[in-house]
Amino acid sequence: MFRFIFRLAAMVALSISVIMAVIDATRSVAASALVMTPLNASWLAVSTDTRAAFESYVRAKASPLLWDGVIAFVLGQPGFAVFAVLAFLLYAVGYRRQRRNEFAAT
Questions:
Q1: Helices 39-46 and 48-61: angle between axes, nearest 10 degrees
Q2: How far apart are CA 84 and CA 102, in angstroms?
Q3: Facing residues of 78 across strands?
Q4: How many CA atoms does the CB half-sphere of 71 hold within 13 Å?
Q5: Are 34 and 88 in contact (CB under 8 A)?
Q6: In degrees to the nearest 10, what's the CA dihedral of 59, 63, 68, 72?
Q7: I want to staple 40 with a disulfide (CB 3.0 to 4.6 A). Which of 23, 28, 75, 81 is the partner?
Q8: How much is the pLDDT for 105?
Q9: What is the distance between the terminal CA atoms of the chain, rounded to a whole angstrom?
């Protein structure tokens, strides 16, 4: 059951990654230059309130160093890359390896 949830979340993250990559590709063609939108800019374009609430929550509950060091770095990366890595990690957690029957006669 949990593997299904992780694989479903991986599919959603991959879908978001593809959508963000198509948007960046469209902008790149229109500008005749490579355009990679940071995740922070995409998040601010969609919802500024949730971005501000997330920042204040992390600074209050965890540590300002966590925000300045790790999260600010991740938010500065291209959004499609962040969601692609997230999709890969979620899929890796939900992946079920094929069991080999070592005692079977071939």
A1: 120
A2: 35
A3: 38
A4: 14
A5: no
A6: -70
A7: 75
A8: 61
A9: 33
Pick from 23, 38, 50: nearest CA to 76: 38
Give me the average pLDDT of each 10-residue run along the chain (106 residues): 90 96 96 95 94 92 87 94 96 82 64
Q: Which class for 83: exposed (0-12), middle (13-18), buried (19 or more C-beta within 10 A)? A: buried
pLDDT of residue 104: 60
**From CA 46, how far away is CA 67, in angstroms rounded?**
20
State the Cα–Cα distance between residues 40 and 77, nearest whole angstrom: 8
Q: What is the pTM of this model?
A: 0.82
Token pair in block for residue 76: 């500065």
Return the pLDDT at 76: 94
- Residue 33's identity, in one-letter code, is A
Instruction: Look at residue 31 and give its three-state secondary structure.
Output: helix
3-state helix, strand, coil in the chain (%, to 5): 75, 0, 25
